[in-house]
Design brief:
single chain, eight-stranded mixed sheet, about 15% helix, mainly beta
């Protein structure tokens, strides 16, 4: 018997309980591609599946053999040949490894009553942290996995005779046997490349061919609404011959679309560390006119790592006024933002666009949302009792803000006339959640949003309709272990999330882009609550209970955070113009 009580990714507040009776011969859906889909074989199967695979240790005690079986489940070669070697011959015939791949924090085993010298039964339990979908996409989940596993003696050796379908992996085995890589897909307007993080088995074939197979299969289902859909159905990576990456089924692409597809190929390989130049053919026709291959220089405007290489300008919000911070020189900005004294929150772009939330001097219970620029006056957009901190979309004249916790407002300001147009973003996902949005931040790619709702961290995908309207879809809760302590959040340049919390044990936490891991950053001298976090390509800024602190992303030996030079003793909020 198997029980899985899970909070599914797209149903953040409702638990889906599955009860499976009769653990063998069950129908399934693929979780990690094996040998059922020609495109997926290339993703996880090595070229030579005849090599030795780990098998049962002679004389192994049943509990240890069962643990060895779960460890072997991390090796997908040969339709999970390693794991199957732990089963009786009858169980091997009916066990379906592809039903699901759940990731648990750890596996606990308990012997059930009635054990004999020939038969044993174990209760297996684990706290679910997520699942691997087809193509290696990780989806965070929470819940409990429970199952009953039966073993029996076969020729003096213990073997598993009855077990549920599917693969169960401990978090450590996922990290030991798989590595995360990023595929890159164009956004729906083909302006920006979006990272799609995948976990790839380390013992398979060459990484570059794995990545190309997955790229041809398209983005994961969750990310798909934000991506360019120009690749024809049936497009396939057919292999690498004499250094040439060969794609078939893409003959209907026009020259411009071929270049778009090529940009995805080039940047996926380059970021994975595969050296160029890259020779690519679509249905036998070379993409490069000179035949020498393509490099990232051919698609430099699409560089998905560009934000990590830019120098961001630092500002600070203090006592309702905005200041520039250059070394130890801190002075008010030369605009109304530096004189107002009424600013509660603000966001800036590198080219001078600004959006702010101000208190209403005539009504202390009202807030004003305004847009403008460093060199242009702020224009009032609307009023409400509460606004979140504004956040800019991919285009720097488009800004989002949350009004009164449940209305996501999108405002477009004309660069030529200064006129503003406002509409409401579809946020029907809130119907399934308890609480209000206190923080909303759009990623650098413009494809994702991070939100804090009732102290919990969520991410969603921004979908653009044919009429230009926006919706937040496919909302997933990340970092369940925060348990309602999240206070602030910002996107790091590599796509991870930096979260400020009210937890004294973990004031600042890094959450990976796909939610597969959370890491507490050095606690040192930082004190919760961390009410504001902001990131630059080189630094994390955090406003804790006492001051504005900074911590470098690399090269820091100390666990202590430092006050921002020029702002010592001034409890401010960092604002990084991106």
């Amino acid at each position: 018997m198997q029980k899985i009580h899970r909070h599914r990714a797209l149903l953040p507040r409702s638990a889906v309980a599955l009860l499976v009776v009769g653990s063998l011969g069950l129908a399934s859906c693929t979780s990690l591609p094996t040998n059922t889909d020609p495109a997926a074989i290339r993703s996880f199967e090595p070229n030579d599946t005849s090599s030795d695979v780990p098998g049962p240790v002679p004389g192994r005690e049943p509990d240890l053999l069962l643990r060895d079986f779960y460890a072997a489940g991390a090796i997908p070669r040969g339709d999970y040949e390693a794991a199957r070697s732990f089963l009786t011959s009858n169980a091997q015939e009916v066990w379906n490894a592809d039903n699901t791949t759940l990731i648990v924090d750890r596996i606990d085993l308990t012997t059930q009553p009635g054990a004999t010298g020939q038969r044993r039964s174990f209760s297996v339990r684990g706290d679910v942290i997520g699942s691997l979908q087809e193509g290696g996409a990780f989806i965070p989940e929470t819940g409990v996995y429970e199952a009953t596993i039966e073993l029996e003696q076969v020729n003096g050796e213990w073997r598993i005779s009855s077990l549920p379908a599917g693969i169960i992996l401990e978090r450590t085995e996922l990290r030991n046997q798989y590595q995360p890589y990023s595929l890159f897909f164009l956004n729906s307007t083909s302006e920006k490349l979006i990272s799609d993080r995948r976990w790839i088995y380390s013992g398979g074939e060459s990484t570059d061919t794995v990545l190309m197979s997955l790229l041809a299969a398209g983005p994961n289902d969750r990310l798909r609404p934000a991506t360019w859909s120009g690749l024809p159905e049936g497009a396939n990576f057919s292999g690498k011959t004499d250094g040439v990456y060969e794609f078939t089924g893409v003959g209907t692409l026009n020259p411009e679309e071929s270049q778009r597809m090529a940009s995805q190929v080039v940047w996926t390989l380059a970021v994975a560390g595969v050296p160029g130049p890259y020779r690519i053919t679509f249905d036998g026709v070379s993409v490069s006119d000179n035949g020498e291959g393509l490099t990232t220089d051919d698609f430099v405007t699409m560089d998905p790592q560009a934000s990590a290489e830019e120098v961001s300008k630092l500002y600070a919000l203090n006592n309702g006024r905005l200041f520039t911070v250059e070394g130890t020189d801190v002075r008010p900005v030369d605009s109304e933002l530096g004189d107002s004294g009424d600013i509660e929150s603000v966001d800036l772009t590198a080219d001078g666009h600004a959006a702010a939330v101000l208190t209403d001097p005539e009504d202390e219970n009202s807030r004003i949302f305004a847009v403008g620029g460093m060199d242009h006056p702020q224009v009032e957009v609307m009023r409400a009792a509460e606004f979140s901190r504004p956040t800019f979309e991919l285009h720097n004249n488009v800004v989002w803000v949350v009004a009164d916790g449940n209305r996501i407002i999108r405002t477009v300001r004309s660069d030529t006339t200064g006129d503003v147009v406002t509409n409401e973003v579809d946020s029907s996902f809130l119907d399934d959640l308890d609480g209000e949005i206190s923080v909303l931040r759009i990623s650098d790619s413009g494809a994702r949003v991070a939100m804090i709702i009732d102290g919990r961290l969520y991410t969603g995908i921004i979908e653009r309709s044919a009429t230009g309207e926006r919706s937040v879809v496919n909302v997933v809760e990340f970092a369940h272990e925060l348990e309602g302590t999240a206070v602030s959040v910002d996107w790091a340049s590599d796509g991870a999330l930096i979260v400020g919390t009210s937890s004294t044990d973990a004031p600042v936490v890094r959450v990976e882009q796909d939610g597969s891991a959370s890491t507490t950053l050095p606690t040192g001298n930082i004190n919760a609550p961390v009410v504001m976090v902001s990131t630059s390509p080189t630094m994390i800024y955090a406003t804790d209970a006492n001051a504005l602190l900074q911590f470098p992303l690399q090269g820091q030996d100390s666990v202590n955070w430092r006050e921002v030079p020029g702002l010592q003793g001034a409890r401010s909020a960092a604002v990084v113009a991106k």
